[in-house]
């Protein structure tokens, strides 16, 4: 029960991203600062964690070996992920972005053929190109149906152009996040833990965030004190607390595929937490019955997808090491 509680708590803190980004947008803050300040503020927090684990020097040695891939895939995994997500907040409420963001499950599945994995055969381990899980993809279609239902209600209140400005950036982010993170796992070759990898990618993405900050100064001026404080909260709550809680929950059940699936399914609660936060603190209109039905479908799809994925993994035991 404790891993489930930790998973729900992590979803709660992850939801702060969507609520606070929407709050910054409604108060006139630019998405440029919402995006760049989060990662700039994450650096000292992550440094403290990695230093406390005495893992900073090994990280720096690995980064010096291949600085080019670190810069490229950190830009993809963090820059092309979070900047579009913040941009979308100008056109969609946070709860809708949180729901639409679940499309990353589909995007991640479609990226499988781009990577190789070690597969157990009669002759031993063989390196084969990843395959798209048909059963997992079918479960993902349930999530997509829920997202469409939520967006259908949203189309009644905005133009089609604004709808696409809110959806297309999230689709870009949904591919960039798993692509960048998987490529970085290839580059690090299993020599770094999750905290080191996140810190390394944050540091390697700093050139992009600094350039974006300069662009922000030139176009919209400096961020307000309130936006800076809210970005600090996003960095702390989502970038640090939520991540640590989720890693802790998955570590506790890593040997049990069914329990691991249950923990991962708790992340669908982000939609409900983001919605509750916006209703309580931002006075957003209450979603319609159709939107509620879409939210319910997304949550059910997340749970089914998680169980199907880990059931296949547990029964076959063929995929032993993922690239």
Automatic annotation (TrEMBL):
Keywords: Membrane, Transmembrane, Transmembrane helix
Ranges annotated as spanning the membrane: 31-50, 70-90, 96-116, 136-152, 158-177, 198-217, 229-247, 268-286, 292-309
Protein name, entry field: Multidrug resistance efflux transporter family protein
